Amino acid sequence: MSSAAAANYDVLIVGAGIVGAACALACAKSGLRTAVVERNQIGGGASAAGMGHLVVLDGSEPEFALCNRSQELWRQLQPELPASAEYSTAGTLWVADDAEEMSEAERKHAYLAERGLPAQLLDSRAVADAEPHLRKGLAGGLLVPRDATVFPPVVAAYLLQKAQALGTQILLGKTITQLADGEARLADGRTLRAPRLVNAAGADAPFCTPGLPINKRKGHLAITDRYPDLLRHQVVELGYMKSAHSLTADSVACNLQPRITGQVLIGSSRQFGIDDPAVEQAMLGRMLRRGLYFLPALAQCNIVRTWTGFRAATPDKLPLIGPVPGDSTLWLATGHEGLGITTSLATAELLASAFCGAEPPIPAEPYLPARIFAAQSTHASAAPAAEAQL
Ligand SMILES: Cc1cc2nc3c(=O)[nH]c(=O)nc-3n(C[C@H](O)[C@H](O)[C@H](O)COP(=O)(O)OP(=O)(O)OC[C@H]3O[C@@H](n4cnc5c(N)ncnc54)[C@H](O)[C@@H]3O)c2cc1C
User: Percent of the chain, pLDDT > 90?
Assistant: First the structure.
């Protein structure tokens, strides 16, 4: 930033999804003069498309740590959330289709128990008691009672409303075209200045920060009419982790969520390399058949809406939270793939701690963007062809 130009804010955040909203509130609470710039509406990107499952995944220690810390923060936030945020602590029921998946349930149970998280292994009969409408003969499952669900766009709006009460400015209908060196260029030609710029633009983060290794990962969802007695827990097949952590193949996995309205939200699919948001009947059909396999009663249900959204995927499946090497003003809070609702609050906490020089509650290193840029330059010098495949 040129020394002659005065800063408009201490922190300027691009994107009013749940991540940008959470970051804005954390910064405002730390006493920083904060602004959020959003091209569309609050919580209208992936945060409106996603399932809102607040889940602790354990694909790696850093993934677990971020989810776990964030869930603590969600539990602290819950009492003050409006009813329209639809916070519900239904818990997750991971279901095992066969003995191999049951051994994954046992591994997960041991992993969570070692870290002090409650979870309960269920045999075939206990799964049927917990969820009477699931297919008969499942091998068993794992009930994780602390997992919850929310309606993310309402939470994003709530967090920003609180930030606004602390002085945060929200600029809606404004697109940022460039973000670097303490300056944010707007499409209308204006320039806003801040010593800290935060790219929280989700899957579109590379538009403002060219070269960022974020890939769009398309997902389909469907929601039924109201069937209040059909489902009690978020039901996820144990094969879900294979689908979520594959970096190349298109995949579907059964992920069913009972909404407070009595509707059932049906996910999920993953596709790379597609920018078109249109619902694809073939992929939707695959996803629905997977749901139907585990919950045969879906065959009698009306689907009232189908849609898609884009996850922001990084090459190593961890988000990018922290400064960009080479530009001390530019920070990232993106790349949360299928966990950004869950991990938004801990992301914001990490960012605000760094801005204020405070000790973060969990180590920040695993999420620092420097790891990706270092990997990129290694790939570029050692094997250019490999980088092209990322
Ligand atoms: C199908 C699906 C299911 C999911 N299910 C879950 C789940 O159950 N649990 C979970 O934790 N996560 C889930 N996710 C992931 C979660 O939705 C995302 O990780 C999260 O919403 C990311 O939030 P965000 O604020 O980073 O991005 P977004 O919500 O996409 O917000 C980014 C914002 O930036 C704005 N923007 C972009 N570029 C610019 C620009 N140049 N100028 C101004 N504004 C800009 C956009 O308009 C947008 O509003 C799911 C995602 C999908 C697609």
Answer: 90
Ligand 1 touching residue 366 (CB < 6 A): no
Chain-centre distance of CA 249, in angstroms?
A: 20
How close is the Cα of 116 to the center of ligand 1, in Å?
Answer: 30
Give the residue whose CA is nearest to atom 37 of ligand 1: 201
According to the model, what pLDDT value does residue 387 have? 26
What is the percentage of the chain residues whose pLDDT exceeds 70? 93
Please, are residues 140 and 120 in contact by the beta-carbon 8 Å criterion?
A: no
DSSP notation for 256-300: EEE-TTSEEEEEEEEEES----SPPHHHHHHHHHHHHHH-GGGGG
Q: Which of 277, 294, 312 is the last residue of a domain?
A: 312
Whether cis (ω within 30° of 0) applies to the bond prior to 30 is no
Q: How far is the CA of 201 from the centre of ligand 1 (A)?
A: 8
Could you list the residue range(s) of the whole structural domain that residue 176 is in? 11-49+152-214+317-388
pTM of the shown model: 0.95
Please give the structure tokens belonging to residue 92. 């997750």
Ligand 1 nearest-atom number relative to CA 175: 42
